[in-house]
Amino acid sequence: MSEELFTPKQAEQIGAPSHVVAKARASKREVLRIVWDKEGGYPEHAWGYVQWSVRPFKQMDGCDGTIDDPVHLIGYRLCSQLGLDYAALLDEAYAWRDRDDNGDWVRETTEEQWRAIERSTIVPKLSVQSLRRLLNDLTDINNHSLAALLHDKLKAMGYDVDEYWEDRPDVD
Q: How far apart are CA 31 and CA 20, in angstroms?
């Protein structure tokens, strides 16, 4: 997989979707172009597929198919600050998968790899708002079981994260 950052003007000139360029301009961020390739381990039929996204990622950007790593980085960082083991949470949340390696990818991710993701992610300070937004983002990337488990853990710790979905910009 190859990744390259562009200014909104550059992205527009090379054919990035107008809604991505507009979002980058409005938020004063850049546009990331991702090209799937052999080196990224993608199957041959996917080589050359292009995705576009705004970076750095910030909470509540919404899912565009490219935000799993930034969302999990934020989850990992915030949970670490709370003394919660993110890998163990994944194991517990997805125990129904009849596998025992659900959190292994977190355990195997090096601090250097987390820092690489962090370079294109705005990691928020720990707050009730950042926790509520994390739950939203986990839901956006279809990690519903993890969001539900983390919600319960945070509630037990005294955090007001009920009705976190009300923080969504598309909900009145």
A: 7
